[in-house]
């Protein structure tokens, strides 16, 4: 069976580890590849390769670095179909969603191509007599990226394009559940002209991660995954003196006001709740319906639309399905447990996705779209991130109760409001405790030239990913204050005993 390799120093390298993780096609349940979980020694080799490459790469002009990223961008476009098929095969998401993921990653590459402008620093002339001051935004060294299964291309591309463009070198530790994309990206970077050692991939699990969190050669750690691991990564990396950004889980709420455009809201909620089988950190999993009248209307519309959804394999000839399988049988069982607990705790199960069968794909990990009404804040299905195609409707009497619920929730990644009233929308944007807010937009993922990040226990660390925060994260500021001797032009030069800026 094909074994996914490491990519170290520009070479594809077989791991010697005897710990093997199998990779499945979630639509068929078949084993398709395997990956060895790298050892401490192998992870150290990837770090050493990046460490050795840093000296030359950090001195390469930003323009030259940008040109490599321009080339990488066109290679991504040329290879889009092949990469999207690979994503769909290992993750299960439908083809057009895989293309969407690649496009959002590509946008960060495009942003990083502007690095000569973004990394210019600042300059002030004559801060004192004959004294100038300028700042340099210098790279830090070896940066690590640890990424989740749900976006095997996009999330790594939230990180490495900016890290590389700013002159750092990189070690990526992708999810062991769908690791193939990491190697394809490494090969395309090499084809684009990236020098060997600048970008490395080490496959693995906690054993490799722990090396990345503690090795003194690693300067920064970017993590995206579940909250308990994000918290662990942030604490461990910080104790070891590293700069860290760790993005965690979510429970994204939307508030449905009585004046909302119902058709627009229902369509938006459907896509945001069930797209990618709910395996998105920005999936919309809670609707707070303000008043019974709007709740009744919404639930009726959702039930109708769910009845018309097609669930099946990610790549089809002809008409595409709306939703694919979830990642693993374990994850499927976990989602079904949540559905059971919702029923036990008294929520009204309107559509049950358990036991969903796709003809010809009986061994696939399918869970059908699931809809709960009359969910209350004390229930497990409200409190915890399910990360599956389960939408919960909570009925609230007014806007204030809705806002209170969003703000009291443990997570604060995204939040949305559906309304026709500008004042309510404005107030919501001001008062809601979430990092990304949508007004009549269900999944408000910021563009590459803004930055992505939640609030509360959806993020650990002060800087968000990509955009200007990404440039700040992967550079450190040095400010140079200089005064040149005037001995050539002036006859006298006296000693100065006060700070030069005072003169
Ligand atoms: P995960 O936390 O299980 O794994 C993420 C990464 O951490 C993987 O590379 C994995 O190998 C590694 N890892 C797992 N256990 C570890 C341990 N004990 N010690 C060290 N490293 C460990 O997450 P997942 O299941 O791959 O992804 C789903 C989660 O990611 C969801 O909670 C989702 O909300 C979150 N997510 C968040 C964002 C965001 O931007 N906030 C984006 C995508 C996904």
UniProtKB/TrEMBL annotation:
UniProt KW NAD keyword: yes
Keywords of this entry: NAD, Oxidoreductase
SUPFAM superfamilies: ALDH-like
Assigned EC number: 1.2.1.27
Domain Aldehyde dehydrogenase: 13-480
UniProt entry tagged with the keyword Oxidoreductase: yes
Gene3D superfamilies tied to this protein: Aldehyde Dehydrogenase, Chain A, domain 1, Aldehyde Dehydrogenase, Chain A, domain 2
Name of one Pfam family that matches: Aldedh
InterPro entries given in the database record: Ald_DH/histidinol_DH (IPR016161), Ald_DH_C (IPR016163), Ald_DH_CS_CYS (IPR016160), Ald_DH_N (IPR016162), Aldehyde_DH_dom (IPR015590), MeMal-semiAld_DH (IPR010061)
Protein name per the record: methylmalonate-semialdehyde dehydrogenase (CoA acylating)
Species in which this protein is naturally found: Xenorhabdus anantnagensis
